[in-house]
Amino acid sequence: MIEAFTSGFWQVLAWPAFGYLLLGIGIGFWVGLLPGIGGLATLALMLPFSYTIKTPIEAFCFLLGMLAVTGTTGDLTSILFGIPGESSSAALILDGYPMSKKGEAGRALGAAIMSSLIGATIGALTLAISIPIMRPLVLLFGSPELFIITIMGITFIGTLAGASLIKGLLAGGIGLMLAAIGVDPQTGSLRYTFGSLYLWDGLDVTPVVVGMFAIPEIIDLAVRGTAISQAPKEKLKGVMEGVKDTFRHFWLVVRCSLIGVYFGVLPVLGANVAQWIAYGHAARSLKDKSRAGKGAVEGVLGPGAANNSTRGGDLIPTIAFGIPGSASMALLLGALLIVGLQPGPEMLKSRLDVTFAMVWILIISNIIVAGISFLILNHLAALTFIRGSLLIPFLLVLVFIGSFTANNSIYDLVVTLIFGTLGYLMLLNGWPRPPLVLGLILGKIGENYLWISTAAYGAKWLAFPSVLILIAITISIVAYPTIKERRGRAKYDRPEDAV
Fold it and tell me: Across residues 404-418, what is the average pLDDT?
């Protein structure tokens, strides 16, 4: 294994493999910055080129190198403009964009880049050491447990996304209702499509996320009539402070990285879910919970680490068992077959050097993109000082390009405008937006797990010990903030405290 680990490293650095890696990184860097295009769509476009590449390691230097860096550069767009460059970067808007408005863009960017690098490294190293031992963990949870985990995820973020617990849970419930739009996967009947063929496939996450988070911020920018940053214009400062924040909260970064790895391993969930769970964990770790969503650097570190560590987690079931953990891994699984590799025992025995080369590709590509990002941060951050009237047309173009390229449908633009309006109304009335988005993401996944559980076990799965434990954890997540608040009120209301 040591020999294969070393061999994988030198094969990645050899020419032309390293040239393919740089090319993939260059494409992934700009794809991540442009909202809506996404690493998945670009990977699909680039996949045919793997036919012409001679060796498997060269092919994966190009494809995996490109995919590995989109999360990091997507974070930069989320922080600077409040527009997610990648759907897996949406959670960074909650605290990263407020930091930009306060003139702390440098600190937020430094924290995001460094936490992304650490998260990617932890994900890659986890891939390297855990393939032999991950099978029992992957098989530990069946469809009943995964269904409860989806509900737990919505509940968890719902209790942390705003001052009102009821509003948070209701927003998550609305997201679940929106996830029901489309064709019923079990019966084939149409639900809430209103005669529209577009709605048969349900609502796509990309136009919803872009509308919910980007449009309200653009409206706010237009109303204020100022630049994004409300601080005096000066040279970008605080980047090293953000890097130091990463190490001040190092164990938070590690925990959120492991959250990303685990959700990468679990089928279907991936970075879109991991970022919100990591954000919820980061918000819960705050001593002053009121800082969440107002520019807390922890809210940048958590999802920044998680959405990059999921790449390593995604690769574990893909390589070890031939079970892709996400849509992007399904395409990489196709690439494995194209270059003549068979996932499973072959990847873990006769082609172990290719497996370890993937580890090095994840690490090296993220080191390179972190270095590039630090070099151009001043130029990127300077955009936050441009007058809003000049910047808004550019941002709107990005928003609509990002929405349209999700499915190349004009209806996606309509969805973006509808959810942009809804997001602005929610913002004005103090309703949290993350639970709604997470409910939409997890709704279809949870419904499938519910049907599979019911078909396989009837109602018996509700009595499984693992399910009961997860239900108890979910209830405690909801009950704890309420009990804590009531105890605080009771303590304050006692006469001796009043005196």
Answer: 81
